[in-house]
Amino acid sequence: MLTPATTRKDRYDRQEVLWGYLLIGPTLLGISLFALWPLVQSVYLSFTSWGVFGQVQWVGGENYARLLADPEVYATLRNTIILAVTSVVGSVLIATLLAVLLNVGVRGTSVYRVLLFLPVVTMPAASAMVWKWLYNSDFGLLNSMLANFGIIGPAWITDKAFALWSVAIVCIWNEIGISMIILLAGLQGVPRSLHEAAHLDGAGPVATFFYVTLPLLTPTLFFVTVTSIISAFQMFDIIYLMIGPEGYALESTQTLIFLFYEQGFIHGSKGYAAAIVLLLFLIIALVTAFQFWLQKRWVHYE
Amino acid sequence: MKLMKRSLIGMSSLGMLVALAGPAFAEVTLRLSIWDANQKPALDQITARFSEENPDIKVSIEVVPRSDYVTKLETSIVGRNAPDVFWNALPDRFLELARSGLIENLDERIKADGVDLSPIAPALLEAFTYEGSLYAIPKDFDTVGLWYNKALFDAAGVAYPDDSWTWETLRENAKKLTNPSKGVYGFVVNAGTRAGYYNFIAQNAGDVLTDDLKSGFDQPETAAAVQFMADLILVDKVSPTVQQTEEVNAQTRFKTGQAAMILDGSWRAREFADDPYTLENANIAVLPQGTVRASSSGTLGYSIYSGSEHKEEAWDLLKFLASPEAAQIQASAGAVIPSHMDQAQIWVDAIPQFNLQAFLDMVDYAEVVAHSFNTPGWSSIMNQELKKALAGDVSVDEATSLVATKMNEVLASEGK
Amino acid sequence: MNTTRFPINPGRILVHVVLITISAVMVVPFVWMVLTAFKSMSEATAIPVQIFPSQLRWENFLTLFNSFNFGNMYLNSMVSTLLRVTAQVSFCAMAGYAFARLRFPGRDMLFAIVLSVMMVPPVLYIIPKFLLMTQLGWVNTLQGFVVPGFTSAFGTFLLRQFFKSLPNELAEAAKLDGCGPFRTFFWIMLPLAKPGIVAFGIFSILWSWNELLWPLIILNSPDKMTLSVGLATMEGEYVSNYPAMMAGAVLAVLPMIAMFFFFQRQFIEGIALTGSKG
């Protein structure tokens, strides 16, 4: 619909311009101060070295040279990728299953939905505390239940062989709810008529799912995967709280963002920490770009 | 629109709250940062007395958990927002703080006000001296003793520990006291410095740090001490593993009656006295001896942050904290052994159920905690690598030689 | 013939079985948290595990307020969440509206900047943000904690999309009646955008309440700490009081769970909104 305001494309309404700037003012100021300027400064900082008590020195590319030579960075990168892949694959698979089941519309769907969603609204500090307690090798519920079957459970979060997987389970538990709700919304967008048509063609529920539902769900699945991976790369709270900066299993669970915190705020090496976080940014950007490339190959948009 | 209105009301009422809570102009509130919640009640009393005498100065005590204390303090110094007065321990970069001028040199003020520091043990004053000047006023000192659970000893028919005990007695009796079916361990090896390595290393006549500031971890005596600790866990199995201890610490196991003996400092007395179970069942003996007698010892002092806006008031507080009156309140609370040597007996008498005298008996052979300019720089490496040896991931020799190398690198770079 | 009214469908039973199993596993941590919160220390550390407390020990909750300064942390969490969410929702609504509905030079370029900020992981900003707070003298202050969260690129984007989806007629009518841009925004469009604003507000509250990393860095002294940071530091070098820790966890999660129960629909819609349009 054409209105007088939009037909005069070449001229702005003075009042509207004024209010436009006024309304975006706070946001623009906030974003400049707390996002744009920090972005520029991060790059600068990554070329400096910091004393414990804040003495700054320009060191050129030293931090990047250290980054490339640091075996800890590679181990950390490996952990980060394992954790992200495991938790995303695990949570998306389970969430898809749950979304499909909830979409059947059985009785009590809303109760199930509430229960499955609870972890999402739970404070990560509290989740980590409870899981740590469940995993406790002396007094934990998990090992006590295993003992009933004659199994001596491991030290879930302090044994180097298990810690990363134990953390991954908590991440999956934490992520399922949100992915499930998004996928459910996606499923509800799949027209019933298509299901009925498939049914008339003699397709069973499993075949219908794979040949009708799944292809139509791919845009949502894609979205969920991308956002989950991005957030998995930035997951800090649970590792910090479950393993801790002095944890015995830290070496086998430490992720890039944890290394960033450790270097920047425990060892006070803010320059090196800035280089680490820029590496993380680069990785996230690459993963996102790769996913968008991949998207062209497997996502169906109507 | 409702939203906006509500937010405006919210903001203005908050503003009023801030205005009401804000101090009057003449009044100064000093921030005093400590880490031990067990000592807060005594310190509350001390600062209340101080504010009675100095009505214009209020003191707000901030208890930061020990594990975060150094990080938070350093972050707040970078943020130029450090507390006016804070606890300083020798291994917490005390020397570096003094060298960088981040804490006040107290000499001139002490001279100008004629403060009498003579009741304070000279060794403690010396510990807080950097290049001939005092940078902190010692408030207390501590030693580490052998805490034992009388009920578990009685049940196993083992005689209570005394000064005749050696490493071998410790090992043998720990075996008798261990009862896996009940989850009871005879001893808990602490994979930490003060209540762990430093005692055993000193008892074996080894060094953590040599006098000429080199790592002591290439000495066979030092390695053998770590080996003894590792054997208690891995060979004799009288102690939970380091992984288990990380999940449930030694103090918690001791308090729940699942550890017969632990090493812990004199600073723990108040906490164990406040708990009915440990008050009834716990007691203390001097540490078993190795080739020599030794106990790890440390001291805490009060320092003034150089960036403080209220240095004069902070100095007034420090003077009071250094007074016999303050020392006496601290001692009678049973919190810590006061730096005023003439008041040590008050502390011993504060908790008659415990044999606190044992901690004083060890003063003669107390070994002051190892420290250099950048102690956290090497102690974090040391803790991390030694833990691997105690867990059995690497041999003790591998771990100690790696610690020696890495530690010497850090030590070599800290002079600059 | 009952089958038409009560279809006992093996498929549906299977669906229930799977859903019940997964839901049960998902809920175990909550049940265990509540059970432990009421136990005594010796019940909590019994070997083998004792499932139920012998009596409800409310004193564990009292311990929190007496020894862990929980009341103060609660207040800090509430004040900071209130301030931050009010400002964030207001500013995002204002900017979102301007970007969606007002014409001014440079609008599209500025919006592109907002969008690009959304692509950057927020951890990247932390160190420079901390240094900025240092220069402002805002380390360890309430404003240092909340002010950086007053604006949100994501929220601006979300609400812009929402304002764009609203019908145009009312705004046009108001304009013809001589309403200025602000009055149109405030009195006409804002009420229409309420569902979007509520959905965003709920998530804003959730993020603010649960946040750990930024308050952990910017707040040093215990009297300033929020619940999240407080819980993180509860297991220190002292004897770990597990029942009190779990009681703390219960109290910390309760407000958000209550909010979720009351605003379930908005939660779900909020996610669907961000999900379908992000």
UniProtKB/TrEMBL annotation, chain A:
GO terms for biological process: transmembrane transport. It is a multi-pass membrane protein. Its main location: membrane. Keywords: Cell membrane, Membrane, Sugar transport, Transmembrane, Transmembrane helix, Transport. GO terms for cellular component: plasma membrane. The chain crosses the membrane at residues 18-40, 81-102, 114-134, 140-157, 164-186, 206-226, 238-260, 272-294. It is found in: Cell membrane. Belongs to the binding-protein-dependent transport system permease family. This is Multiple sugar transport system permease protein.
Automatic annotation (TrEMBL), chain B:
The keyword Transcription regulation does not apply. CDD domains: PBP2_TMBP_like. Keywords: Periplasm, Signal, Sugar transport, Transport. SUPFAM superfamilies: Periplasmic binding protein-like II (SSF53850). It is found in: Periplasm. This is sn-glycerol-3-phosphate-binding periplasmic protein UgpB. It holds the Pfam family SBP_bac_1. One of its GO terms (cellular component) is periplasmic space. Its main location: periplasm. Belongs to the bacterial solute-binding protein 1 family. The keyword Transport applies. Residues 1-26 form the signal peptide. The complex is composed of two ATP-binding proteins (UgpC), two transmembrane proteins (UgpA and UgpE) and a solute-binding protein (UgpB). Part of the ABC transporter complex UgpBAEC involved in sn-glycerol-3-phosphate (G3P) import. Binds G3P.
From TrEMBL, chain C:
It is a multi-pass membrane protein. GO terms for biological process: transmembrane transport. It is found in: Cell membrane. The keyword Membrane applies. One of its GO terms (cellular component) is plasma membrane. The chain crosses the membrane at residues 12-35, 74-97, 109-127, 142-163, 184-209, 244-263. InterPro entries: MetI-like, MetI-like_sf. Residues 74-263 form the ABC transmembrane type-1 domain. Keywords: Cell membrane, Membrane, Sugar transport, Transmembrane, Transmembrane helix, Transport. PROSITE patterns: ABC_TM1. SUPFAM superfamilies: MetI-like. Its main location: membrane. Belongs to the binding-protein-dependent transport system permease family. PANTHER family: ABC TRANSPORTER PERMEASE PROTEIN MG189-RELATED, ABC TRANSPORTER PERMEASE PROTEIN MG189-RELATED-RELATED. This is Multiple sugar transport system permease protein. It comes from Devosia limi DSM 17137.
